[in-house]
Specification:
By secondary structure, this protein is α/β, with parallel strands linked by helices. It has 8 helices and 7 strands, in the order βαβαβαβαβαβαααβ. It has helices at about 15-30, 40-55, 70-75, 100-120, 145-165, 190, 195-200, 210-225, and strands at about 10, 30-35, 55-60, 80-85, 125-135, 170-180, 235. The structure holds NADPH dihydro-nicotinamide-adenine-dinucleotide phosphate.
Length: about 240
């Protein structure tokens, strides 16, 4: 277990899925965790309860990023941060089905929000801190949800371009890219007859679907002192998805 005691982490989209696993994992390492979510009050409470039940410290903050990030920063007023994980994101849709309003909404949640969260978190972030953006393997694998894929490409570029600007404060900026992971975002894994799942496992070197904990462990690694010399990096955490 990596030692994160004394650290404070903000994890966006931590009411469920990968974000919840990240929040629980960082808390298990000793970090105090701010659990951001958009709408699911009960699920956010569950994340906080799970952390507290395991002896950790956490509280929840609600903010839907279509409406900007003011509510998030009102909720964390007075905080100092050590670790910022931009994890919250939503899907778009296939070509021909996405209205201009939906397009703007996906970019608002997946790109505009992380950008302004970083900008507004920088004065709160201690030197030596960590910024970790959750991207996706869709940046290197062509999939039909073009809008979602474009947002993740933007996030990869954000991390790469931001890293040199924060080096003098010893803040690292890295990107973690999951592959197909069992969460609500992939409800189709539960719904179908197993064909969808097989189509993924057959092209995954490690031969299974990802679990939220797989991603959370990689985030904890990047958040740790051991990763102090890693910045501007995109870490593929897919179990070897589509390696060719
Ligand atoms: P989920 O859909 O399971 O969870 C999404 C989280 O984001 C929830 O906490 C949700 O809060 C929050 N959220 C949803 N809408 C908004 C909004 N409008 N404003 C602010 N927050 C919002 O996602 P995953 O756990 O599957 O994905 C987490 C990250 O991992 C995302 O960045 C995703 O792109 C990435 N990823 C996921 C993969 C996968 O296979 N699952 C693969 C590759 C990347 P609430 O519960 O309140 O709605």
């Amino acid at each position: 277990m990596r030692d994160l005691s004394g650290k404070t982490a903000l994890v966006t989209g931590a009411s469920r899925g990968i974000g919840r696993a990240i929040a629980e994992r960082l808390a298990a390492g000793g970090a105090r965790v701010i659990v951001h979510y958009a709408r699911n009050d009960d699920l956010a409470k569950e994340t906080v309860a799970a952390i507290e039940g395991a002896g950790g410290q956490a509280y929840a903050v609600k903010a839907a990023f279509e409406d900007g990030v003011d509510a998030l920063f009102e909720g964390i007023a007075g905080e100092r941060l050590d670790i910022l994980v931009n994890n919250a994101a939503i899907l778009g849709g296939v070509l021909g089905t996405v209205s201009e309003e939906q397009f703007d909404r996906v970019f608002a949640v997946n790109v505009r929000a992380p950008y302004f969260i970083i900008e507004r978190a920088l004065p709160l972030l201690n030197d030596g801190g960590r910024i970790i953006n959750i991207s996706s393997a869709v940046v290197r694998i062509a999939l039909p949800d073009l809008v979602y894929s474009m947002t993740k490409g933007a996030l990869d570029t954000l991390g790469f371009s931001l890293a040199p600007l924060l080096g003098e404060r010893n803040i690292t900026v890295n990107t973690v890219s999951p592959g197909v992971t069992r969460t609500d975002m992939n409800a189709w894994l539960r719904a179908d007859d197993g064909t969808g799942e097989r189509s993924v496992t057959e092209v995954t070197a490690l031969g299974r679907i990802g679990r939220p904990e797989d991603i959370a462990d990689a985030v904890a690694l990047i958040a740790s002192e051991e990763s102090r010399w890693i910045t501007g990096h995109v870490l593929d955490v897919t179990g070897g998805y589509f390696l060719g």
